[in-house]
Design brief:
Blueprint: E1 15-18, H1 22-33, E2 38-41, H2 49-53, E3 57-58, H3 62-68, E4 71-74, H4 79-86, E5 97-100, H5 106-118, E6 122-129, E7 141-146, H6 148-159, E8 163-166, H7 173-201, H8 206-233, H9 243-260, H10 265-282, H11 290-296
Parallel strand pairs: 1-2, 1-4, 2-3, 4-5, 5-6, 7-8
Antiparallel strand pairs: 6-7
Helix pairs in contact: 7-8, 9-10, 10-11
The structure holds NADP nicotinamide-adenine-dinucleotide phosphate (NAP).
Length: 304
């Protein structure tokens, strides 16, 4: 295990990290931990002090930073900030590999990819599915898409940050998965918090409710796996539980919330999606058929 001041380990590839906020600092730190030579640049150079104390080299300019290593990780606030850093150094990017883990849209990732390739650089876009304390933990997922040769060439280095999953050559995919997974997280957490508020109103501690809720998520994950095939096939046999049955059941959730003064917006939103699916002819289909009304919202469907 390298000490905090240990020199870089032979054979470990040099990496540059641009952006030393909470996440960029964690990325640089994990690479130093594993003995990689690390060059860093941050708009506010003072934030590099601790990393420099552990052996990182501080570049004076973004240009010096990207030319110090074949591989550069960029992790700044957003796409605007990234462009402000990269645009003036476009001429220094040829032959470099830029792995951008700044959050953004799929469209921004695709534009960045075209721009980087036009300047002779390879590009991978990334989605970080953890918070800074999770960086370096192999159970945490880092999603990448874009240049396959760049991923293959730098897989071992990227694996230092967390489990590196390659999604495909479309550079927009990592960002799209990222927001889709965040949506899943927020929906799940809000459902759990709503449930905690419900049982809490009747005196049950969240700490008692939560192990049961977590166990239930295992079953829910099983439903998702079964329903994925139905979503892809566009056929939703209602042989487990139909939308009509779930519309009847969701009334109990609305009632339980109303009776306890708990917010009803979430159960009413769920009920609305189920009712629209039933109105579109899916009453006797499985819950997976709700995807039809979610998909159609942008094509003139009723999203209310
Ligand atoms: P942060 O702590 O606020 O750091 C923002 C970084 O962006 C700083 O290095 C800042 O430089 C830099 N920056 C902002 N505007 C800039 C500009 N105009 N020019 C140059 N540099 C600029 O944010 P963070 O938590 O590290 O997040 C960084 C990225 O990682 C974001 O896109 C975020 O969505 C993504 N991410 C974060 C997490 C997380 O848990 N934190 C998880 C997944 C993904 P200064 O130090 O000079 O202000």
């Amino acid at each position: 295990m390298p000490t905090p001041h240990s020199p870089s380990v032979e054979g470990r590839r040099a990496v540059t990290v641009i952006g030393l906020g909470s996440m960029g600092s964690a990325l640089a730190s994990a690479l130093l931990d594993r003995g990689h030579p690390v060059t860093v640049w941050n708009r506010t150079p003072e934030k590099a002090q601790a990393l420099v104390g552990r052996g990182a080299r501080l570049a004076a300019t973004p240009e010096q930073a990207v030319t110090a290593s074949e591989l550069t990780l960029t992790c700044v606030f957003d796409d605007d900030a990234l462009r402000k850093v990269l645009t003036p150094i476009a001429g220094a990017l040829a032959g470099r590999v830029v792995v951008n883990v700044t959050s953004g849209s799929a469209e921004q990732a695709r534009d960045l990819d075209a721009w980087l390739r036009s300047h002779g650089a390879e590009h991978l876009d990334g989605g970080i599915m953890t918070t800074p304390p999770g960086v370096g933990d192999p159970s945490m997922m880092f999603l990448y898409s874009g240049s396959r040769p760049a991923f293959e060439a730098h897989r071992d280095t990227l694996q230092v940050l967390g489990d590196a999953r390659y999604l495909g050559t479309d550079p927009g995919l990592a960002s799209l998965y990222d927001v889709a997974l965040l949506g899943l997280m927020w929906s799940t957490l809000t459902g759990w918090l709503h449930g905690s508020a419900l049982v809490g109103a009747d005196g049950v501690a969240a700490a008692d409710f939560t192990p049961v809720a977590v166990r239930w998520l295992t079953a829910v994950a099983g439903f998702m796996t079964t329903y994925a095939g139905q979503v892809d096939a566009g056929r939703y046999p209602g042989d487990d539980a139909t939308v009509d049955v779930q519309i009847a059941t969701v009334q109990h959730l609305v009632h339980a919330a109303e009776a306890r003064g708990v917010d009803t917006a979430l159960p009413r939103l769920l009920e609305s999606a189920m009712r629209r699916a039933a109105a579109a002819g899916h009453g006797s289909d499985s819950y997976a058929s709700v995807v039809e009304v979610l998909r159609d919202a942008g094509r003139g469907g009723d999203s209310a």
